[in-house]
Amino acid sequence: MKDTLHGYMTLEAALLMPAVWFTVFFLIFAGFFQYDRCIVEQDGRLLAIRAAEMRGKDEAAVIRTVMEKGELAGKKKLLFGEGVHKDLYVTRDKAKITINGRVNTLLKGLLKEGNLNAFSYAIEYEAKRYDPVQFIRTCRRVGKYGGI
Question: Given a cut of 70, is residue 117 above it in pLDDT?
């Protein structure tokens, strides 16, 4: 058996390992991005439902109460979130919330413009506001047609 090595394994490893490490780090970062996006979606849905269920207050009071009580995508929940911007609109018939945000990346400092939208998200939810009397009447109609 010959004891000489030609060095081709070292060269192949030097060319292959950066791609492997980049793939591993990208998969980990993609998991963090999905986690942040899911947290924002859940909180947005919850705030829209809370705003739709509030009764006896004007639209401004509903918005103020929901935003004060809701820790929407706070810094405690998000891993890499940055600049989460939320808008809640409440009318007589519906409550609508729009949330925009982005995830911090290392590429942000490397790019001149800084507008890397590949790791940003936008979520919009709408919940219908029911009048309690109308809701009870609808339930009775459904029960009547369903034979209950």
Answer: no
